[in-house]
């Protein structure tokens, strides 16, 4: 079962991170971090890793939740600020 192999998840994270560089915005970075989290859990081992190796739904749930949390945190940290105004040549965009 391919979802139980740790290097597959880390390779997918690397590919998604490379594609994020080519894509504008924060489109794939959350998925890259989510895949890296699953890969790290599979490398480390432990009770959660045992559950991930048995159950595809548990693996996908961890991937989805970690991707969503990573996207939300990154969006809050480096995303667009509400107080920023984009301007060109000392003029407001909305003028």
Automatic annotation (TrEMBL):
It comes from the Bacteria. Keywords: Membrane, Transmembrane, Transmembrane helix. The chain crosses the membrane at residues 6-22, 27-44, 50-74. This is NfeD family protein. It comes from Pseudohalocynthiibacter aestuariivivens.
